[in-house]
Specification:
With 371 residues, the protein is of the alpha/beta class. Strands 1-2-6-5-4-3-7-8-9 form a nine-stranded mixed beta sheet, with helices on both faces. A two-stranded antiparallel ribbon has the order 10-11. About 2% of the residues have low confidence.
Length: 371
């Protein structure tokens, strides 16, 4: 490993705040000059930072990462994900990576799927199905390795034998949360673990927020599946917005606080998505997805997706019905997530309405539907 690579990894570990004035100053002068300034006590360098650098056992530092089967990549490497360069001076000095799939991040249009740790069964299923559908299309799925939506997204991608990337807020050799240690092993086997934190570093609250910029930058689009109004996953969304990435959110039941944040995003600038097809179409290169020129002349029935049609047909003409009853009436492949997504879209069209009891009913007739 080159000396430049070691220096980049160590400086990155010392710089805990990528937005700090000091980090921006050092990024502007490059690795070698930054190292020289810290080591020799440039006037802009706090004495504490210089002492931290001088106390680093470089050999032990690098050996700990190597013992975990990780390697260091940095800007300029052939497999460095170029989309990280959009962060400009806020980009990482270097990354510790374990596993395979880094090339795929450079070659394919990856998608971030994020959301609440304390998610509902609906959110977990929606994240898993979205991730599986995207992975089956060859799109890498990125998330943060946390409990809840993150873990469901990783598992969905793995189930489809696709590539998934967990961007960690801790050292590459630290399994956090511990409940996901087996999941991290599977990700390292089939996908990639990524972090800019030093080996052995334990996560802190600020570290999660700093990590979120990497998730947003690595992905061409970010999907928030389920999040309360005040949710850490919203920070990933905001980073994605600042980077001009595709912004997406999955609707949930209007009575669910766990979907309050996603609904707020949909009222703002998020694209509503309910399937992997929706997401793939939004992140695809311009011109690669054909548009039906006759779409405007179609009836309401023609304009519905297959899922919307199936759910609409499962609703009785008059009496409201529960989601469980609808699930029994539709194809098993739909699942709860797709049924809820279709209901949300039908509700936006003014075709169905949720009752205080949680049941659903038709609101008006659908033009163009078969009798």
């Amino acid at each position: 490993m080159t000396g430049l690579r070691r220096k980049a990894a160590i400086i990155g570990a010392l710089m805990s705040d990528p937005a700090s004035a000091l980090n921006l100053e050092l990024k502007a002068v490059g690795v070698e000059e930054a190292w020289f300034r810290i080591e020799h006590g440039h006037p802009s360098i706090p004495q504490q930072l210089r002492q931290r650098l001088l106390s680093v056992d470089v050999a032990a530092f690098m050996a700990r990462g190597a013992a975990a089967g990780a390697r260091v990549v940095m800007p300029g490497d052939s497999d460095w994900p170029a989309q990280l360069d959009a962060l400009q001076l806020h980009s990482p000095w270097a990354l510790w990576v374990q596993g395979r799939g880094l090339d795929a991040l450079a070659e394919q249009r990856s998608v971030a799927i994020v959301g609440a740790r304390a998610c509902t069964r609906y959110g977990e299923r929606a994240a898993s199905e979205l991730a599986a559908g995207l992975a089956a299309r060859g799109l890498p799925v990125i998330s943060g390795g946390a409990m809840g939506i993150d873990a469901a997204a990783h598992r969905g991608a793995l189930a489809a034998e696709g590539i998934t990337v967990a961007v960690l807020a801790c050292g590459i050799d630290v399994a956090y949360p511990r409940e996901n240690s087996t999941l991290f092993e599977r990700i390292a086997e089939r996908g990639l673990l990524v972090t800019e934190a030093a080996p052995g570093a334990h996560p802190t609250r600020p570290a999660f927020l700093v990590r979120n910029r990497l998730i947003a930058a690595l992905a061409y689009g970010t999907v928030v599946v389920e999040a309360r109004v005040r949710s850490g996953s919203i920070s990933t969304y905001c980073h994605a917005r600042n980077l001009n990435r595709v912004l997406m959110a999955v609707p949930g039941p209007i009575t669910s606080p766990e979907s309050g944040g996603t609904h707020a995003l949909l009222q703002d600038d998020a694209q509503l998505v309910t399937s992997a097809d929706d997401v793939a179409a939004l992140v695809a290169p311009l011109g690669s997805v054909s548009v039906d020129p006759l779409a405007r002349s179609k009836t309401e029935w023609d304009q519905l997706s297959r899922d919307e049609r199936a759910v609409h047909e499962a609703l009785p003409a008059r009496a409201p019905v529960s989601v469980e009853a609808m699930l029994a009436s539709v194809s098993p492949e739909l699942g709860m997530a797709r049924v809820f997504g279709a209901l949300a879209l039908l509700a936006e069209r003014g075709l169905v309405q949720e009752q205080p009891s949680g049941e659903w009913k038709r609101v008006r007739a659908l033009r163009g539907a078969e009798a």
